[in-house]
Each structure stands twice: as C-alpha cells, then as structure tokens.
Amino acid sequence: MVLPAEGRMNTAHPNESEHSYSIHGRVVDAHVHIWTPDIQRYPLAPRWRTSDMDPPSFTPEELLAQCRPAGVERINLVQMSFYEDDHRYLLDAVARYPRTFSATGLLADVASEDARPLEHVQELWEAGVRAVRLVGGSLDGRGKDWMAHPHYEALYRFGAEQGLILSFQVNPTDLSEINRFCRRFPETPVVIDHLARIGLDDTKVDAATRMLCDLARHPHVRVKVGAFYALSRTGPPYLDLLSLIERIVASFGPERCMWESDAPFQAQPPHDYQSSLRLLRDHAHFLSPSDKEQILRKTAESLFFEDLANSP
Predict the structure, then answer these.
(1) pLDDT: is 174 or 16 the higher one?
(2) What confidence score (pLDDT) does residue 20 get?
(3) Domain at 38-304, CATH from 3.30.43.10, 3.20.20.140, 3.30.460.30, 3.50.30.50
(4) Which of 24, 29, 255, 292 is the most buried (most CB within 10 A)?
(5) How far apart are CA 3 and CA 77, in angstroms?
(6) H or E segment and range at residue 221
(7) Alpha carbon distance 312, 309 (integer Å)
C-alpha cells in the first residue's frame, strides 16, 4: 500500500474486522535499556550505585522473554546512563544478537571543559553505532540555550555529513533549541524520545504538543511514541494518551513516528510490556493497518536496521 502524504494519516481503511492485517512477530521496539548485575565485568560509572539499578537486572535474555511473546522481532538498545561512556555491555549484546539488536550510544558529557564528544562519536561510529543520545538542558540544569556550546554544532555537522542520528531525551521547553539547530542543519537526522515527555510535568499539554508538532516542518525529525507508563495519568491501557498520539501522528505522518516501550521501566508493575504495544495496535482506531505497520515496524527498521530492512 502506498503511504499517505507526509503529515497525513490514511483514513480510508476498512473496518478492523474486515482485513487480515497482522504485525505480530514483526514489531520493532525503538527504545529499550539493558543492564547486568555483573558489575565486575561491566562496572558502573563512578557516580552510579547498584541501588540505582531498578530492577537489579535487565539482561538481553530477560528482555527477549518480555518482547518475544508480544511479537517483537527487533529492538533498538539505548545505552543506559549507569555506564555513561563505557559502551561495552551494549556492544557485546549487539554482537551476540546482530539480527535482533541495534545500538544507540550515549554522550554523557558534551559541554564540559574536558568533554570530547566527537571523539566518542567517531569511536562508536567505527563500532557500527549509527545513533547517539543526548540530554536536554532542562534535565541537567543548563537552561534554555543548552546547545550554545560548539560541540553541538560539530555533532550536528557530523550528523548531516555522515548520517549520524541524534536522539534527544528532552522536555518540551528544550524543543526550541532543537528547532533552532534543525534550521541550521536540516539534513541531520533527529529523533525525539518519549513524545518529548509531554505531560510528565506541569507544562501545559496543548502548548507543549504544539511545540513538538512545530518540529514536523523539518523532514528529518522523527518521534518515538512510547514511555506510556510515565506519561499516562490513568495507567493501563493508557487511553488518555490517544488524543496526544493522534495529533503527533497527524503532524509528522506515520512514516516519521515509531513505537518504543522504554523497557524495563514499562514492564514494572502495575505496568507491563504488552500494554504499551496494545495501545497502538488495538486501541488507536484512527490508524489504518498500514499506519500501524509503519509505526510499529517500518520507521524504526529503516533507521536502526537499514541493512536488514529489505532482507527476508
């Protein structure tokens, strides 16, 4: 089926009961963290403690036990903050499951006097990592102009030239700075994690949603749709988030939206892994079957599993 024009959903679809569409077994989860209790082999960064690891363990095997029954085939692993710039556990997991996992690295320090983010990026790039995560200024106290440091310009330029994906953990107040850089570097691939955490704090949801939708003007900006456990005020099945999701998908188009669980946090009681997937698969009736396939598989697959996207 031909995808709808950018920013428009395919609303001319048959009733759910009249088609045989099934995504089960082919879903791609765009955002999951893993860690191990084996801190001798994989030590935590100095400022982290084992008490910060909650749950105490979420290994690749524990992840697969959650996602396989849900019909998830591939997962983009995002470097956990416990390890900061030490990506060995992440890379070892990808090496063990190369057709199942891809990797998004973490730049724990971009703007300090000793920061060498471009060196870290080049090392990760040589290791096959095609995306890195950055944290917004509202989350680490750097304020409104949090990308004023020249290192951010270097990262955006590397992204524009090489195709490095910059994935942002931000609050809505951080989006104006991303907008500014996207105007300067329109070719840089950008991903906004967790729906920009809209609704997580006291920010007005409508105004915050408009700020995120404003980024849709930049064709290389995509949005991860997930972390429902954190954003929903009502809990599973998270139906209160459907209106927000509908606005985001209408602005960006399904081809620039991708589902994420944010496990293991999504899998902690009273939440569970499958409830996150069900919200889009079973309750988002404004999405056509092809829209769902795009959001639940194709968008993330094209970004994080480009080499496998067209393979059997």
Answers:
(1) 174
(2) 31
(3) 3.20.20.140
(4) 29
(5) 27
(6) strand 221-226
(7) 8
